[in-house]
Amino acid sequence: MIKMTKFISGRYIQRYQYKSFEPSFINDQWLIDNKDVILLLSKSDKKIGELNAFSELIPDIDFFIKMHIVKESTLSSRIEGTQTNIEEAIQTQKFISPEKRDDWQEVQNYIQAMNYAIKRLNEIPLSNRLLKETHKILLEGVRGEHKQPGEFRKSQNWVGGNSLNDASFIPPSFENLEELMSDFEKFLHNKHTNLPDLIKIAIAHYQFETIHPFLDGNGRIGRLLITLYLVNNNILTKPTLYLSDFFEKNRSLYYDNLNNARVNNNLIQWIKFFLEGIYITAENSINTFRKIISLKSETENIIINLGRKQTHAKLLIQYLYGKPIININEAAEILDINFSTASRLINELVKAEILREKTGFKKNKVFMFEKYLRLFNS
After folding, report:
1. What beta strand segments (E) does 98-250 contain?
2. Are residues 266 and 328 in the same domain?
3. Strand 367-368 to strand 356-357: parallel, antiparallel, or no bridges (unpaired)?
4. Residue 320's domain is classified under what CATH number?
5. d(Cα 191, Cα 319) in Å, to the nearest integer?
6. How many C-alpha atoms does 76 have within 13 Å on its Cβ side?
7. CA–CA gap between residue 346 and residue 355 (Å, rounded)
8. Which structural domain, as residue segments, surrounds residue 55?
9. Is the dihedral of CA 227, 232, 234, 238 positive or negative?
10. CATH number, residue 197
11. What pLDDT shows up at residue 266?
């Protein structure tokens, strides 16, 4: 049995010219012997329950979840250094300046990987196999495409610095990955760890980031792992909670707490930080859903006054909840109407202050559902 306050994170092993960190196995029974952790767990569990209640009440919630996924993708990728924002992420490539297209594509890959993984959970359990499949999509055709997409690494990697000589952290040797990732997978599915799910995924995320099993993309896969676990274990009824916003806003604390667990065996502080992140993120998601409900009601009341155009307007607004930037050609295609009819409808929505033209061009205009988009940029 592992006592949480007596946790031993692992040990450093001397290699040829460096020391790698070899983490302890985690697939065991655990004892939570810290009152602060128990109190934070109770608070976070309650907030997750409130978030689930909201997700059950909101009609067409899958449209809104699309934007949550876009936000997660941009923020998780931003932690890794990309500069794409939400507004850019939901536009097609032709509207993205050439110097930003590599970053834009990395975010698109993350969106595709996340959607794939969530759907794939209906077919296979959360597993090393699923993480590898997701990783392959994440790195396809972008920076890192030559770093063994979809495969655990077969060489030594490092975190920070330009080489092994000045790295801030050197994960375990690739020779130990099979055993470590087997222990990790067994831990995910072990029903006898005595751990509540929120604490279990906190430990799993720490262990995954410590093992760093891929040559590239470990941070993004590790953060995606959190939502996949919560959905897979029915803690979330819908994929409505993503921690990258919290981690990005508290980036130094995120890395410091992970490192503190490794260096000082202080797993307690990492778990407290993680549970606080769950609570704050769930609260923010609930507030966003409240604002969505209010905006939805306000928008529907405006559309009622559009007379014969209201049927098409309702269909278009529903589409915009999943992708709140559009041009006239897209609107015509979505609604199966001609360009001039779509143009008149868009103009009505601009007059009603539902949409705003964002380019200032006379041609190739792009329109934004600004009030809605602002809810995810706040």
Report:
1. none
2. no
3. antiparallel
4. 1.10.10.10
5. 41
6. 30
7. 8
8. 2-288
9. positive
10. 1.10.3290.10
11. 98
Copy the structure tokens of residue 328: 């006239």
Q: Look at residue 298 and tell me if it is in a domain.
A: no
Determine the pLDDT at residue 63: 75
Its sign, for the CA torsion 213, 219, 221, 224, is positive
Tens of pLDDT along 265-275? 999 999 999 99
In sequence order, the 6+-apart residues with CB closer than 8 A to the CB of 18 are 164, 165, 167, 170
How do residues 53-95 score in pLDDT, each as one tens digit? 988 877 677 778 888 888 888 888 888 777 778 877 877 777 7
> DSSP assignment, residue 141?
T
Q: 357 and 229 in one domain?
A: no
- DSSP assigned state of 300: H
Q: Is residue 11 part of a domain?
A: yes
User: H/E element holding 346?
Assistant: helix 339-351
* Residue 295 lies inside a defined structural domain of this protein: no
Q: Is the dihedral of CA 83, 85, 90, 93 positive or negative?
A: negative
Residues 283 and 310 in one domain: no
